[in-house]
């Protein structure tokens, strides 16, 4: 019970941080938006031919991958803010107080989810403006939000752990960087069938691909089938590893 | 007086480096205990262990009646820590910082708000209550820091170098705040400082830490009596007077360049005899000063590196 109320208090702390520096969300949204525009207008003509469709259809193909890019980009921002926070005296204060210890980290994760969702919303609005036409029903949209929440939760816990592996803020920025490649080395921008065998195997067996496939199906109003289960298993696994690792690093 | 903190045989090593090598301490409730020592002596490590941040390798430690190793949660509920690096959230306002503490202590909304307001008032932060702590001056940050520690009305407060980097006025304000805490609230204070003047001003008892061991412990007066540091310094107006006096007086040190001699003992009779003799000899004195031993003398005498330590007198 104490863990829940203390985590809620720490979430309020994070929300106040976000509220005081709202431009951070713009930063989180800007990179995916640039990617979106680049892939639609610069590469879009060629890429759409690859999936046998036009530029407008490619926006629909692309948007789930861009959403994942937003999540991993924001996770990098979270890593920076956690690493910076850990160098502050206030963390030592929290550790000497009779509170639920891990609530500091839970607050960071929940706060990061709020931030990430705001960024995803902005990116989605831009996608809609340039021709993204989802045909998802209300339950489909709920599924989209659920899958995004699961994956964000998982990646954020992982990046919180990565932020604490080193006490150095500069290193903490770089550790979650490889996550940025996941949507590229998956089905985010091109179909995995177009990749060479080894890469294709990786692309089809890494966590971002089932998440992207689920989003793509739901946004198009199709059933997500097995990719949904795969996405859920990956998310739960990453979240558990990230949580346990982060908790151990925090308590050392 | 009830014992509030008792430590026996506390040890801590990092690898082969022994930071604390068997510390014994007893702090009675409602007193100010000051731990002095040069940088790297183990002051901060001691505070970190006693405030549950890190674990000791060995030793029996009881804080507020609880065994530190077995019931750290109970200890945490009784203590407050104000560190040398401000433990405030710079992004939040002063009031929000205090409300954050109130929320974490489960005081409830109304009580939390009242407590925050009281503390802002008490620490003269009401005008800045709605500004982010990042905009505060050093003195304001320390006051907010201490105010945050007090939200939970702790019975033992660790002040780890609370005035390092503060200007003299802010330092005096902090001292007054600490005195009030002890006198009005009956709080026990564990103070570490590198300012001997600060320990002298505030502490009931002082312990000197050097290379992981306590080399002396007592009241400031007891410590000052431990070292012979009292002396009279006389500076003469001309070389003639200097030479005559230097050959007559039993000076412990003399300096021909500045025409000064240093005479041990600061007793009144010594001083009277000296003045009478100077008067009788009609020697011109440019300056005369009496030095009583201060904690600096104690500190320097007792905390020297072994290699440079003078043979004890």
Automatic annotation (TrEMBL), chain A:
Record carries keyword Cell membrane: yes
Alphabetized Pfam families for the sequence: ABC2_membrane
Gene Ontology biological process: response to antibiotic
Superkingdom per UniProt: Bacteria
Molecular-function GO term, any one: ABC-type transporter activity
Topological type in the membrane: Multi-pass membrane protein
GO cellular component: ATP-binding cassette (ABC) transporter complex
Every ABC transmembrane type-2 domain range: 23-249
Location(s) in or outside the cell: Cell membrane; Membrane
Membrane spanning residue stretches: 21-44, 56-83, 104-130, 142-165, 172-190, 228-246
Entry-linked PROSITE patterns: ABC_TM2
Keywords recorded for this protein, A-Z: Antibiotic resistance, Cell membrane, Membrane, Transmembrane, Transmembrane helix, Transport
Keyword Lipid metabolism: no
Family, as annotated: Belongs to the ABC-2 integral membrane protein family.
Name listed for the protein in its UniProt record: Transport permease protein
Source organism of this protein record: Nonomuraea diastatica
UniProtKB/TrEMBL annotation, chain B:
Similarity remark: Belongs to the ABC transporter superfamily. Drug exporter-1 (DrugE1) (TC 3.A.1.105) family.
Gene Ontology terms describing biological process: daunorubicin transport; doxorubicin transport; response to antibiotic
Native species: Nonomuraea diastatica
Cellular component annotations (GO), alphabetically ordered: plasma membrane
Record protein name field: ATP-binding cassette domain-containing protein
Record localization: Cell membrane
Spans traversing the lipid bilayer: none
Entry-linked Pfam families: ABC_tran (PF00005), DrrA1-3_C (PF13732)
Keyword line: Antibiotic resistance, ATP-binding, Cell membrane, Membrane, Nucleotide-binding, Translocase, Transport
Domain spans labelled ABC transporter: 5-236
MF-aspect GO terms: ATP binding; ATP hydrolysis activity
């Amino acid at each position: 019970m104490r863990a829940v109320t203390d985590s809620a208090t720490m979430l309020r702390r994070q929300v106040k941080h976000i509220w005081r520096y709202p431009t951070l969300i713009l930063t989180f949204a800007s990179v995916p938006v640039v990617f979106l525009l680049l892939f639609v207008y610069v590469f879009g003509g060629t890429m759409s031919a690859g999936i046998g469709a036009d530029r407008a259809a490619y926006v629909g193909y692309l948007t789930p991958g861009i959403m994942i890019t937003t999540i991993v980009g924001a996770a990098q921002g979270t890593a920076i803010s956690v690493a910076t926070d850990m160098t502050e005296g206030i963390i030592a204060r929290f550790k000497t107080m009779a509170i639920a210890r891990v609530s500091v980290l839970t607050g960071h994760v929940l706060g990061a989810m709020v931030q990430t969702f705001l960024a995803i919303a902005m990116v989605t609005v831009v996608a809609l403006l340039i021709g993204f036409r989802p045909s998802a029903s209300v339950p489909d949209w709920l599924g989209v939000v659920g899958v995004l929440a699961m994956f964000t939760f998982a990646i954020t816990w992982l990046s919180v752990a990565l932020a604490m592996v080193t006490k150095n803020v500069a290193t903490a920025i770089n550790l979650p960087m490889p996550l940025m490649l996941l949507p590229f080395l998956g089905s985010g921008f091109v179909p995995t069938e177009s990749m060479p065998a080894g890469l294709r195997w990786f692309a089809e067996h890494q966590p971002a691909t089932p998440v992207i496939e689920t989003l793509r199906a739901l946004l198009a109003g199709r059933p997500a089938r097995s990719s949904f289960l795969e996405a859920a298993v990956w998310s739960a696994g990453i979240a558990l590893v990230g949580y346990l690792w982060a908790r151990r690093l925090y308590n050392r | 007086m009830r014992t509030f903190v008792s430590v026996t045989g506390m040890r801590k090593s990092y690898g082969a480096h022994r930071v604390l090598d068997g510390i014994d301490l007893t702090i009675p409730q409602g007193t100010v205990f000051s731990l002095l020592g040069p940088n790297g002596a183990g002051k901060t490590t001691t505070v970190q262990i006693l405030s549950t941040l890190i674990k000791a390798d060995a030793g029996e430690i009881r804080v507020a009646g609880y065994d530190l190793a077995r019931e750290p949660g109970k200890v945490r509920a009784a203590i407050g820590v104000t560190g040398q690096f401000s433990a405030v959230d710079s992004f939040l306002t002063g009031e929000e910082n205090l409300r954050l503490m109130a929320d974490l202590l489960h005081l409830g909304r109304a009580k939390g708000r009242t407590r925050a307001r009281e503390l802002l008032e008490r620490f003269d932060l009401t005008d800045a209550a709605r500004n982010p702590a990042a905009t505060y001056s050093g003195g304001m940050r320390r006051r907010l820091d201490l105010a945050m520690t007090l939200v939970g009305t702790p019975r033992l407060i660790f002040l780890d170098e609370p005035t390092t980097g503060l200007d003299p006025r802010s330092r005096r304000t902090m001292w007054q705040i600490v005195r009030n805490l002890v006198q009005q609230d009956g709080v026990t204070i564990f103070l570490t400082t590198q300012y001997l003047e600060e320990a002298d001003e505030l502490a009931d008892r002082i312990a000197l830490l050097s290379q992981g061991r306590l080399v002396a412990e007592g009241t400031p007066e007891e410590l000052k009596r431990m070292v012979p540091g009292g002396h009279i310094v006389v500076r003469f107006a001309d070389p003639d007077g200097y030479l005559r006096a230097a050959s007559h007086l039993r000076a412990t040190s003399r300096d021909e360049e500045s025409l000064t001699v240093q005479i041990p003992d600061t007793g009144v009779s010594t001083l009277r005899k000296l003045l009478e003799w100077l008067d009788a000899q009609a020697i011109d004195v440019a300056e005369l000063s009496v030095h009583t031993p201060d904690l600096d003398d104690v500190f320097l005498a007792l905390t020297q590196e072994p290699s440079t330590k003078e043979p004890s007198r």
